[in-house]
Amino acid sequence: MAQIKSFVFNPFSENTYVLYDETGEAVIIDPGCYEQREKDALADFIEQNNLKPVKLLNTHAHIDHVLGNAFVKRKYGIDLYLHESDLPVLKAVAVLAPNYGMAAYEEAEVDHFLEAGQTITFGNTELEVRFVPGHAPGHVAFVNHADRFVIGGDVLFRGSIGRTDFPLSDFETLARSIRTQFYTLPDDYTVYPGHMGTTTIGQEKKTNPFIRL
What we know:
Layout: E1 3-9, E2 14-20, E3 25-29, H1 36-48, E4 52-57, H2 63-66, H3 69-76, E5 80-83, H4 87-96, E6 112-114, E7 119-122, E8 125-131, E9 140-144, E10 149-153, E11 156-157, E12 160-161, H5 171-182, E13 190-193, E14 199-200, H6 201-207
Parallel strand pairs: 3-4, 4-5, 5-6, 10-13
Antiparallel strand pairs: 1-2, 2-3, 7-8, 8-9, 9-10, 11-12, 13-14
């Protein structure tokens, strides 16, 4: 059974996730850790639970979700996975970071490109990759069907959706992604978003003021 540990990092209050199971293998998703204390919090949890990170996954490459990519790659010697369509977004972070007072941001190279329908494995756990553009052009979500949850990034929030006023963002594309890739999941699936607390597919289908069935 997959377990989930979440951290809230950086001034954007971004959710970083560590997924792990009984084998001790783990994946780190969207490491937003920038300050040393944030990096220490992530590393301490991994060490204290005797975990072995084996993959680094990005749902998308906006600045708040990738600040810790280089740190994680270097510390654990693991590969970075991102959808190819989000490469321009990732490349832009090095230019944007100083404007947010984050001049110490380090770039990290992508090792593997994620694709829709791909299965990511670690330990005894499988994650289905779903392509969900709109907030970002190469946004993906990771679905665990065995334990009925979604690591959704900035697509669907409790009572809200990802912003579409960024460059390369588009509301109609995001709405289509939510309707076809999120709302087609069973109602009891838990959504772990890139910001704020969890919700469920069923709750958002009924009450989300932006995208409702």
